[in-house]
Amino acid sequence: MNKALRMIVWITYPIFLIMLSAQLLTSNPYMRLSEGLYASHDDIEYDHRYVARQLIDYLNYRHDNLEFGANAEDDSVLMRDIEIRHMVDVRDLYTLLRIVAGISLLIAVLSVIGLFFRDKSELYKTFKGIFWVPLIVTVTLGAFIAVNFSWLFVLFHEIAFDNDDWILRADDVLIQLLPLEFWMVSAILVLVFTGLFIFITRQLGMRFLKT
Residue 123's Cα: distance from chain center in Å? Predict the structure, then answer.
């Protein structure tokens, strides 16, 4: 039973951390840091910061309007219908992943509490080896990112969405603003942040149990 709880923590806690890292990247500060970093940004004729903020705020439930214009004064609709439909799908997926992350955290916390009262030495082993699953995932995904990220990107979309609305034109807002290179950098950062959070958790957990 104790070993099963250990494995549950090793699996569920990293799932939560991956989503937490993704949450940090779906933010207005991150979008501002990314502004002008990619070649497609040179072709943008609308208000980059305004449009990015509208998309991020929609994704984070601050509003439900995707029919915004090129700037705050523009009353026209900037994105095509297919882009709007895809953003709706993206937020639905994002909501599902957040729910999964919350459930994963709850399961991990309950498992840690169970180990704390059942066998503190087993809990110590749990924290000591908590990096193994994230390490395997990081190495595997890192290899795919390095070798062929575009294949991984397409595979993810084919699995995550049941339509072809994600196949957009090069001059679409979502492609100009969020090119493939943006997602590759973001994926790498998610892995880095997840690894950092795992390291901090491991050190704090082991130190607490030693005392």
Answer: 28
Residue 69 pLDDT greater than 90, yes or no: yes
Distance (Å, whole) CA 211 – CA 200: 17
Which pTM was predicted? 0.89
Tokens representing 165 are 């609305």
* Segment 13-65, tens digit of pLDDT: 999 999 998 888 889 999 999 999 999 999 999 999 999 999 999 999 999 99
The mean pLDDT of 178-182, rounded to a whole number, is: 95
pLDDT at 211: 62
With a cut of 80, say whether residue 155 has pLDDT above it.
yes
Q: Specify the long-range contacts of residues 68-77, CB closer than 8 Å, at least 24 apart.
A: 70/45, 70/46, 71/46, 71/47, 72/47
Q: What angle do CA 113, 119, 123 make, to 5 degrees?
A: 60
